Amino acid sequence: MDKVKVLLADDHPRFPELVEHFLPPEFEIVGKVANGRSLVEQTMKLTPDIVITDISMPVLNGIEAADQLTALGCKSRIVFLTVHNDSDFVRRCLAAGAYGYVVKSRIAVELLPAIRGALSGHVFISRDLLHENRV
User: Fold this and answer.
1) Does residue 84 lie within any of the structural domains?
2) Which domain CATH number covers 50?
3) What is the pTM (predicted TM-score) of this model?
4) Residue 89 to residue 83: CA distance in whole angstroms
């Protein structure tokens, strides 16, 4: 069975290490980028199955990058992993083509379900946002 290819996008230097900690062995990180422009370029070049991205990044933010990827017909599934727990951000990410929205404080329990949901074509939104009827 082929590994699930993952591209990570966040300008925080410890982000890839943190995400790797929560991914099981059937996932392979094929790239790491620190800004939205690189996210678009590397996604189109590497064609990962999953893109895990933050919203707040330099050059292009994650939402702008997702908009561009969607416009380019990219088939990679996008999961946002962010500190932003605001329903406006969730709506903007979903409109940009995201399949998942996980608040970083919930990474341990929600990242893997969000990724698996995205791979299955289902949208996943962080429980904290749904629980509070914020989305």
Assistant:
1) yes
2) 3.40.50.2300
3) 0.92
4) 10
How many domains does the structure of the chain reveal?
A: 1
**Rounded CA separation 72/46 (Å):** 14
Angle between helices 36-46 and 62-71 (to 10 degrees): 40
What is the separation, in whole angstroms, between the first and last Cα of the chain? 36
Residue 1's pLDDT band (cuts 50, 70, 90): low
Strand partners, 27: 4
Residue 103 falls in which region: left (phi positive, over 0), alpha (psi -120 to 50) or beta = beta
Domain-embedded: residue 121: no
Q: Examine residue 118 and state whether it is found in any structural domain, yes or no.
A: no
pLDDT tens digit string along 39-94?
999 999 999 999 999 999 999 999 999 999 999 999 999 999 998 888 889 999 99
pLDDT winner (highest mean) among 17-26, 107-116, 123-132: 107-116
CB atoms within 10 A of CB 3: 12
45: in domain = yes
Domain coverage including residue 70: 4-112
CA distance 22 to 24: 7
